[in-house]
Amino acid sequence: MLIDSLDNINKIHFIGVAGVGMSAIAQYLSADNKTITGSDRYFIPETTNETKVQLEAEGIKCFMQDGSGIDEQTQLVVISTAIENTNVEIEKAIALQIPIIKRAELLSIILETKRGVAIGGTSGKSTTTAMLFDILEYAGLEPSIISGAGLVRLQEQGKIGNAKKGNGDILVIEADESDGSIVNYYPEIGVLLNIDKDHKEIKELKKIFKIFKAHCRKFIVNLTTPVVSKYSENKLNDFGIARSRAGYTVRKFVQEGLCITFEINDVSFTLNAIGKHNMENALAATCVANQLGVSLSNCSEALARYKGIYRRNQVLGKKNNVWVIDDYAHNPAKVYAAIASVQPLAQKVIAWFQPHGYGPTRFLRTDFVASISQVLRTQDEIWMSEIFYAGGTAIKDISANDLIKDLKAKGSQAFFVADRNQLINKLRSHFTNDCVLLLMGARDPSLDEFAKQVYLEI
């Protein structure tokens, strides 16, 4: 059954609702007065699950992933690309003749009801989406957001923080290219931040972003990078560094401690964040916001109040002369940017990385080694623990230690500690009086608690 509207659909069930992309849409629709239920394999009886608690606080009833959340009143079942056809809940939905739709298809339907702004690119999507939402909200436009990461200021209210339904007509979304779902969206404004090898080869990514561009009424790109600049349709609408001839240019970047300053079209900006990549994210958000009617001065005022997003350069604190920073970096470009952004903070950086997935690690092995060996200073170190395995039929023919061996061969100070719980004990003798410990990794839901535990043990 083809679903092109939610007007006559009230009760919707999400399989895998704890996933960041799924939970965002579930919260948005619950705020839109739909009856939302959800299940997840992480919802275990007699075990507290923070995501479950937060979802239920938003009026979303949660179940084990055993079919109990689906009944004859369920009108639509939503799945992500991670849900296999053999899932018991999919089988039940089919038996009850309930339509099944993928997450991206549902998001596309929602986007059609608003003035959609879709943020695309292989890095920086979540941050740019959050920054743009903050600017628009500060300007009184009451926007909505469906994102891939929680905004800290929303999390401070006890929420997951990756979704909010405003009363205005603008909806900002993070458009994911990793599963190709970005081609489903037809927004008023599409944004392309960058193109780096990640889940797919550059050649394949170019094709996907070409389709994405064709679906957008206005397309805005980063002119700084040659591969992205080719997608430009009007340089006056684009953004980039001063020499890029873009309509929105940035210059005078300075990083001091945990703060960066810069100018966009001669307007001064101050951001409580680190790294040139966050300057570029702020530039992109400002460029779009200005074209939606927000003055550059208001953009600057809004971003001065920006509190960041979950696990993106998230500073846990400084203890025993060691800064501890948690980051979601998981592809070569993001790992490079994360390490570079913390280097001005201390004489020595100790970076720890947990790769996720045997397939992705195998695919990106050479790129990881090249990026990490290039960004590390002589005194810096890279540590890795074993690859995070989320289940499935992956071929386990690669280890994080293989990357460590490659890095050692390039002259980097590289170390392998298979069990991450042994990390602090191994690291103690490597700390100095002027040091940053940067923790990086994605997909593993326990990384947040792991980072907090590391900070406690330093």
> In total, how many beta strands?
21
The poorly predicted ranges are none
Residues in β-strands, percent = 15-25%
Q: Return the CATH topology of the largest domain.
A: UDP-N-acetylmuramoyl-L-alanine:D-glutamate ligase
SSE-based structural type: alpha/beta
Give the overall average pLDDT.
95
Instruction: Say which CATH homologous superfamily of the largest domain is assigned.
Output: Mur-like, catalytic domain
Oligomeric grouping of the chains: single chain
First-residue to last-residue Cα separation: 56 Å
**What's the gyration radius in Å?**
22 Å
| Biggest sheet, spatial arrangement of strands | 8-7-9-6-10-11
How many separate domains?
3
Number of helices: 15
What general outline do the C-alpha atoms trace?
globular
CATH class of the largest domain: Alpha Beta
Question: Under the CATH scheme, which architecture of the largest domain would be assigned?
Answer: 3-Layer(aba) Sandwich
Major beta sheet summary: 6 strands, mixed
> Helix amount, in percent?
25-40%
